[in-house]
Write a structure and sequence with these properties.
This protein is an alpha/beta fold. It has two domains: about 120 residues, Rossmann fold (3-Layer(aba) Sandwich), CATH 3.40.50; about 90 residues, Arc Repressor Mutant, subunit A (Orthogonal Bundle). Helices cover about 40% and strands about 20% of the residues. It contains eight helices and twelve strands. The chain has a five-stranded parallel β-sheet. Bound molecules: calcium ion.
Length: about 230
């Protein structure tokens, strides 16, 4: 049974989300302020977090940043609930690092679809055993480990899957649409900007190896040695 932590201060919305998640067979934990939410995220290790942006205590952006910087919680998927369209780039961008977002008001059905899609792509199936090497990057899929020039790079599950997707087809150009489908799944309703913001984040984390990811303008990306 998957555990979902809902951090949201609108009590009626918490009730509505909890009721529907439990009906779908999830175990639900709730927190109605930022401080309690962060504490629960750290101590309860949920499988997924639904995080409102505007919260009393610590706000959602700060919580997400803290979670995505910590080794223990970096791989926990976070779906941000936001009422503000203009903050979306920041939310899925490098600074905050959420895995997905949903704009209020939303339908419960849409939320359930997003949750299902994220849990599908972040639940380890049987990863390929083969260790991949491109330039100074070494990827060990079975151990979910990436190093660049020997230093470990801590990636979120989505970033890892994106890198693995590129590395499994070295030198092959992959369109944003194909990456969106392979990494985020068929049911994903977001747009291709999501791919760009995750590539930006991946490059920043890869440091010296960032230039192995090549942009093909207006089309997509590929990973190859110089
Ligand atoms: Ca709120």
């Amino acid at each position: 049974m998957k555990t979902i932590l809902v951090i949201e201060d609108e009590k009626d919305l918490v009730k509505l989300i909890s009721f529907n998640l439990e009906k779908e067979g999830y175990r639900v934990l709730t927190a109605t302020d930022g401080t309690a939410g962060l504490e629960a995220a750290r101590s309860q290790t949920p499988d997924l977090i639904i995080l409102d942006l505007m919260l009393p205590g610590i706000n959602g952006i700060e919580i997400c940043k803290i979670l995505k910087k910590n080794e223990k919680t970096v791989r926990t998927p976070v779906i941000i609930l936001t009422a503000k369209g203009e903050e979306i780039d920041r939310v899925v961008g490098f600074e905050v690092g959420a895995d997905d977002y949903i704009v209020k008001p939303f339908s419960i059905r849409e939320l359930l679809l997003r949750i299902k899609a994220i849990l599908l792509r972040t639940t380890p199936g049987t990863p390929p055993e083969k260790i991949l090497r491109i330039g100074a990057i070494v990827i060990d899929p079975a151990r979910h480990l990436v190093t660049s020039e020997g230093d470990e790079i801590v990636l979120t599950t989505t970033e890892f899957k994106l890198l693995l997707n590129l590395a499994e087809r070295p030198g092959r150009l992959q369109s944003r649409d194909v990456l969106l489908k392979n990494v985020w799944g068929y049911n994903y309703i977001g747009d291709t900007r999501t791919v760009d913001t995750h590539i930006t984040r991946l490059r920043t984390k890869l440091g010296h190896s960032a230039n192995l990811i090549k942009t093909v303008r207006g089309f997509g990306y590929k990973l190859e040695e110089q």
